[in-house]
């Protein structure tokens, strides 16, 4: 009996030891998870845990951004809301770094903006990669290997875009705008967007990416759009700007190879003059040569004209109608 009692005491001691080891391991695991949570909370702010997690967004150092942008000298475009720079990261990836002019936004509001922009996921929107809160409020976006659309329309040293590539750009931008419309209708926060050849970026496969998206902190029922030109400090009256009009001007840019510098007015006047002369050929970008489909081009031009009218009168169609029409009538996969 004494031996049985001793064996029982040994078994109990072993059980206690095992239980103690389990508690130690559990305690270590909890501590590890807590430390990991604290590290993430410092990097993207505690507030985002209350409203949703941001994945794959990192904090960049100010010195790293200064070096990547060559001292913030490589400007891609600049407008009322901020300046976009071309940057090359350590791994060689070419990205877009945007400096926000609203420095008085405050750290918490800025981190909230990072969170809201980080939610957006679409093939034709630049993906937010990270941010910097040093001397400047900086947002770091994804791959822009082939620069802006404007460069490929205006720079004689760049390889001209063929018709198929231009149509893909028009359809891709329309798809992204439809996504923003749907996303905003199901979200309390609304997104401002500006669309022109300056801020449409092209990745290594020439896939178009809208880069100028901002958080609009005024309550609206649809995405607000601005018609910013490519120069610093210029911003059109928001009552005149709308996304359908901007898409129409963009399509004219793709057809003519001309960039608009006065919120579309100069390009529209030029196109109207060509129409009066009954010479569509004068409107078409000479770089296209004879490599375009005439029937497709006329359909795109007709859509562009309808879109432009929306600046002067309420449109009877939506961006979704434009996107679906282009998808259906033009045989180009996106």
UniProtKB/TrEMBL annotation:
Q: Name the SMART domains on file.
A: TyrKc (SM00219)
Q: What is the lineage of its organism?
A: Eukaryota, Viridiplantae, Streptophyta, Embryophyta, Tracheophyta
Residues of the signal peptide? none
Indicate what this protein is called per its UniProt record. Answer: Putative receptor-like protein kinase
Domain (Protein kinase) ranges: 62-334
SUPFAM superfamilies under this entry?
Protein kinase-like (PK-like)
* Alphabetical list of InterPro entries matching this protein: Kinase-like_dom_sf, Prot_kinase_dom, Ser-Thr/Tyr_kinase_cat_dom, Tyr_kinase_cat_dom
Q: Which GO terms describe its molecular function?
A: ATP binding; protein tyrosine kinase activity
What Pfam families does its record include? PK_Tyr_Ser-Thr
Q: Which GO terms describe its cellular component?
A: plasma membrane
Keywords associated with the record: ATP-binding, Kinase, Nucleotide-binding, Receptor, Transferase
């Amino acid at each position: 009996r004494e031996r049985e009692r001793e064996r029982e005491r040994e078994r109990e001691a072993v059980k206690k030891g095992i239980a103690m080891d389990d508690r130690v391991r559990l305690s270590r695991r909890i501590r590890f998870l807590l430390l990991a949570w604290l590290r993430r909370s410092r990097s993207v702010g505690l507030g985002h845990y209350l409203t949703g997690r941001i994945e794959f967004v990192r904090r960049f150092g100010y010195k790293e951004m200064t070096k990547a942008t060559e001292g913030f000298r490589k400007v891609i475009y600049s407008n009322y809301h901020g300046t976009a720079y071309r940057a090359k990261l350590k791994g060689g990836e070419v990205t877009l770094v945007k400096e926000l002019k609203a420095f008085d936004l405050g750290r918490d509001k800025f981190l909230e903006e990072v969170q809201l922009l980080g939610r957006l996921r679409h093939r034709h929107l630049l993906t937010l990669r990270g941010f910097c809160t040093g001397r400047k409020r900086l947002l770091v976006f994804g791959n822009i290997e082939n620069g802006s659309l404007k460069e490929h329309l205006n720079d004689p040293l760049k390889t001209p875009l063929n018709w198929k590539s231009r149509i893909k750009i028009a359809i891709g931008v329309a798809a992204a705008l439809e996504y923003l419309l749907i996303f905003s209708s199901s979200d309390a926060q609304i997104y401002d967007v500006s669309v022109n050849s300056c801020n449409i970026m092209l990745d290594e496969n020439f896939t178009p990416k809208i880069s100028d998206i901002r958080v609009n902190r005024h309550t609206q029922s649809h995405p607000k759009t601005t018609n910013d030109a490519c120069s610093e400090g210029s911003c059109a009256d928001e009552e005149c700007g709308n996304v359908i009009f901007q898409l129409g001007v963009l399509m004219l840019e793709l057809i003519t190879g001309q960039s608009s510098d006065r919120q579309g007015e100069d390009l529209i006047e030029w196109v109207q003059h060509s129409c009066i002369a009954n010479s569509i050929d004068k409107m078409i970008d000479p770089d296209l040569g004879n490599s375009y489909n005439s029937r497709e081009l006329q359909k795109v031009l007709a859509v562009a004209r309808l879109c432009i009218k929306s600046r002067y009168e309420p449109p009877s169609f939506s961006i979704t109608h434009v996107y679906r029409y282009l998808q259906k009538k033009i045989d180009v996969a996106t």
